[in-house]
Amino acid sequence: RLRHAVFCREIGVAVPGAQDGIDRDGFDADCDHIIVEDTAISASGHRPVVGTYRALRPQAARKGFYSETEFDIAELVARHPGRHFCEVGRSCVASSHRGMRAIEALWCGLWSYAAIHGIDAYFGAASFLGTDPADHAHALSYLHHHHVPPPQWAIGARPGQGVSMDMMAAHTIDRAAAIRSMPALVRGYMRVNAHIGRQAFIDRQFGTVDVLVITPLRDMPDSYRRHFIKATGRTLGPAR
Q1: Phi, psi angle pair for 44, to nearest 5°
Q2: What's the rounded Cα separation, in Å, for the pair 74 and 137?
Q3: How many CA within 13 A on the CB side of residue 234?
């Protein structure tokens, strides 16, 4: 219901099968769902869910990964034998709770989930509203020039479906404007040293321009790692 409120009612995405007030798709049953509740509010004994992520590990991905329809995930996984990947997606926060506290709580959930299941890296699509990449030229070009992944993480869109993110020369980009125009989720990923794929993808069903985000957890800045360890009491296992 939270996802429906954000994606359908607030953003206006026409999600198939969501007419009953619930956003669902064929991947939900295979996913684990990380949620944030507001413990200060209780209606009839129920705490409202104000944030959510869904996580899909390879062994549970009976239908493959959601983002495989857009990006070459098989190539990413093949380049890193022995690493444990997990797809995350459908992330949203209630309009009444948008801010760093809810996002931080979600990230603490992801950190704990990674520690429990031995996950080395998260990946998933992050979305810019609208289907015209030119509307996000500053942001996409900034990501292209300043968050170029090393070769082992440089993944493109599905063959023939990629959109170039190199729309502006590096010296013409207004850095502050570019960062302000990015979704909060993308800015958060940048702070934890996530990698951005080489190409964007136009998702016409959702009405978005998507970029692939890959987050190797051991590449996080030490300050974030220490914070998550302190907040959750969990550490990641040995490096693979």
Answers
A1: 55, 35
A2: 28
A3: 16
